[in-house]
Write a structure and sequence with these properties.
The chain is an alpha+beta fold. It has 13 helices and four strands. A four-stranded mixed β-sheet has the order 1-2-3-4, with helices on one face. Helix 3 packs antiparallel against helix 4, helix 6 packs across helix 10 and helix 8 packs parallel to helix 11.
């Protein structure tokens, strides 16, 4: 171990490979107790998380995170990658998929309690989990590093509840079930992507820490285990999730900037009309719809607004004015 590694994971506090596998491998040691405990706690956690999502209760969702056991098989995937045990990776992936099915099914069942699909649009627990960004990945990676160190060091086991709270695993699955049950497929896909990105981030960070801790060279590891392969897998996984999240983040920033430009241009355009106001701006793809109100429903010449927008907003961005009373004007 290098000096840096010995500082981060002191030999006196380093868990043994046996202890780590005992904690993370669902098919090692007392298999029946591990599996029944996992299923019981995951089902209860899924019920609590879904109820918390539907009631828009942050405290309830946090409670579900604390008792959720999904982090165990996810870090088991990381350990299997580092130690070269493909069977451990496969078993851990299977348990993650079982957890996904259980919680999503609970969400589908609970979706019957949703009054209308539109009510989910103002639910902060749903909105916050349907459009992941690069910052979500950074937070998940940091959480995964904390989880990896907590599992690798004997003196850091007390931080695991905090790790469970910081990483969003079960709540997005509940959101998938609830939104899918209401036919909101785009929101369901967004929540699924958040869950998958968090899973991969945990695997990446856990693999890095377990490799640093020397578990790839442990006598219990597979003869084929090596540092280079572990880092190659980690790099590929990082690219898989970082690129789409970065694209989503850039899109979000661009839409925000265009919204400001559009609102400013429309506001200036309405200055000559007493009582003219600019309302909300909503996006559908690259087309924005701007709500405006005027005393008599009349609007200034559209050509003036088109000239103003052409200077500040790209040509591929559409702008539609919603004047109310089912009357719309397409500006560009």
């Amino acid at each position: 171990m290098s000096r840096l590694t010995r500082t981060l994971i002191p030999p006196s506090q380093r868990q043994t490979a046996e202890s780590l596998r005992q904690a993370l491998d669902m098919s090692y040691g007392d298999k029946l107790s591990k599996r029944t405990g996992f299923l019981i706690m995951l089902t209860i956690s899924g019920m609590i998380a879904t109820a918390g999502v539907l009631t828009d209760s942050t405290a309830t969702v946090i409670g579900a995170m604390i008792i959720a056991p999904l982090g165990t098989p996810i870090l088991g995937i990381a350990l299997g990658i580092v130690t070269g045990h493909v069977s451990l990776v496969a078993r851990s992936v299977l348990w993650v998929l079982i957890g996904l099915v259980i919680v999503v099914t609970l969400g589908l069942i609970f979706s019957v309690f949703v009054a209308t699909p539109e009510s989910l649009a103002t639910n902060s627990q749903v909105v916050g989990r349907t459009s992941p960004s690069l910052m979500d990945l950074i937070a998940a990676l940091a959480t995964g590093l904390a989880g990896g160190f907590a599992m690798s060091r004997k003196d850091l086991s007390a931080v695991m509840p905090g790790v469970a709270i910081a990483i969003s695993l079960v709540p997005p699955l509940g959101v998938i079930g609830v939104t899918a049950g209401q036919g909101l497929w785009q929101d369901a896909l967004g929540a699924l992507f958040l869950f998958l990105s968090n899973v991969l981030a945990l695997v990446i960070a856990g693999s890095v820490v377990f490799t640093m801790a020397g578990f790839s060279r442990d006598p219990a590891s597979s003869p084929t285990a090596n540092r280079r392969r572990a880092y190659t897998v980690v790099t590929v996984l990082a690219l898989i999730i970082a690129l789409p999240l970065a694209a989503n983040s850039l899109t979000t920033v661009a839409l925000a900037r265009w919204s400001v430009s559009i609102q400013s241009a429309v506001g200036t355009w309405l200055d000559d009309i007493s009582g003219g106001q600019v309302g909300a701006i909503t996006w559908s793809g690259l087309t924005s719809t701007v709500e405006i109100t005027t005393p008599d429903g009349s609007v200034p010449p559209i050509s003036d607004l088109q000239k103003s927008l052409s200077a500040d907003v790209p040509s591929f961005v559409g702008v539609v004015l919603d004047v109310g009373q089912a009357e719309e004007y397409r500006v560009k």
